[in-house]
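Reopening: structure tokens for the arginine complex, inputs below.
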Amino acid sequence: TLEITDLESSLATLRLAAPLPVINSADAVTNPLDLVRSLLAGILSQLVESSPEAAYRSVQLPNSIYDGDLDIVLPKLRPGCKAGELAIDLARQFPIDHPLFPLPFLEGVHWRVLLRVNTLARLLFPFILERGNTYGTDKKVGSKDPSSPKGARKKLIVEFSSPNITNEFHGKHLRSTIIGAFLSRFYESRGWDVTRLNYLGDWGKNIALLKVGWERFADEVVFQARPIEHLLEVYDQINNLFQPEVAASRQARDEAARNGQDEGQAQTEIENQGIYAQRNTAFKKLEEGDEEAIAFWKQVRDVNIENYKDFYSQLGIEFDEYTGESQVKTETMNEVEALLKEKKICEESSGAWVIHMQNHGLKAGTAVIRGRDGATTYLLRDLAAMIERSKKYNFNKMIIVAANDHNSLHFTHLHHILIAMGMKDLAEKIQHLKFNETSSMAETLGTGFKPQAILSHVEQAMSAGLEADAAKTAMFGNLSKSADRLSVASLLVHELSTRTTSAHSFDLSAMTSFKHGTGPDLQYWYAKLCTILKTRNGDVQLSDEDYDFLGEDDSAANLLRLLAQYPEVTRATYNSTSPQPDDIVKYLAGVTEQLADCLSDDEDEVDDGVKGETEAKAEQKTFGAGHLTLFEATRIVLENGLKLLGITPYVAD
Ligand code: ARG
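Re-run output (same inputs, fresh job):
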């Protein structure tokens, strides 16, 4: 591992102040901008006679590289000052000919710093190249579990995907799958010990309804041939018959409410007959452990898990545990229920057990623990599941990635009920990471498909996308093989670049295009860099001319300045209360945009039809060792970023 002493010796050779001022919030070993900020704070603290720590806090990162690399907020540096006067005063004493910091320039209250590219390159190249695949990660953070005597890493549970086995794999499950997998990798890159859970919707009245349908409509032969589709068909058939009964029960409830009668009673009368009654009996059998019912349920669960696993593996995703509503222990649920009754948190209402949420920190709402027919509910199972998980994993934090649909209210209830039960600690460790519930995936793909069909649609669109952009496609060689490999990248980037608050567009042609910032485009620039880098001879010692040449090329300089920000970007994402993967995607898209700018002279030749080998030769002439090192550093940043998104960067073979 790299230490602060390694840094200081390399700083000394660059005639930069060593030792570095000690600043607690700075992490100079992993973040080059922290290093540079610390150096600047060292200078500023002497000029204004403050502590380096205070000076450090006045130095911020501007919103864009067009506002410089660092931003000294003058009123923060000396509270109550007149910015203009302070700037003049500071300018008089600022070191002349500093190798890294030219004289900053004033803009409002900001004293802006544009780093000397020449020195920045000397600092940054070894910084990135030595760190390689750890550049932009920070494993120290997770290692600080204050409650662990042995200094174990912090434990995170990510619960994601969690489809319902009687039902289709929806757009919301796809989003949860991809966001959850990202968060898992991301926290691992910050040193956390991560466990991935899939909490299947594999218990409850829906399974019972499927069982009722199975008895009427099942066809063993069809089931053997295509189990998943057949189960969906059977479920649809029985559900169509069932829906009128659901409507009738609701109507009876509303009518009773209007007439001031018992609503539960009115519903029970309807639900004691027809498919309702059959379903409730079937569920009762399941909850009582009836052998035949359990065998049916197990078969359904097993074929589904096998099928999900196949799909997840195509996306490069693996779970540590397939748990689910069915796996919650009856004892735990009984314990939860007993506690709720003992503490008078829940009460009986028309034969059901409910919690009036206005007594527990919410304005209104009723949460049901046990139904009128005595069946457990989603909520009771979840309460028990949370307690079991906390015992089993003793986690520091749990993130549940689920849509902002019925689950939102559900998790709000869950949070407040845990607190009422005296488990505030546990309640506060659980975070519901929600995303917009609207998805247009079903509109695009239709219904009744296995999740694998999502990928085959993307792959088809990818073939078209490749055909539409001949210039970029040439980079990948074999077309059908590329369509296969690029489709996963296009899906992942599309899902991760949609902000969690935005609706899910599932736009096949957009995600598979080579427009700026798509998966295929990020892949394209990565592959292009690799082609160019074939001419690079390892880590050669760069000459002064190499650095000068680089410093004179504005687009190369801007690219370099962007690369310095990568650890800053990942850290900001980590520090946010709700990490947004699209911040990472946007950053990577910005890097490729700057890279394109840097290579644009050569792009003209490509557009004229000079491709492949000739292109490589042209670049060999154009780029000196300085540029090639810059491209290698860019390649490392792109690779690290893509891997964080779950993409294994690929180069045509
Ligand atoms: N199966 C649920 C759904 O599809 C999501 C599960 C969310 N997680 C939980 N612990 N309740 O809506």
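Residues 159, 162, 164, 199, 201, 382, 400, 402, 407 surround arginine (CB under 6 Å). The chain has 29 helices and twelve strands. Marking as resolved unless the reporter disagrees.
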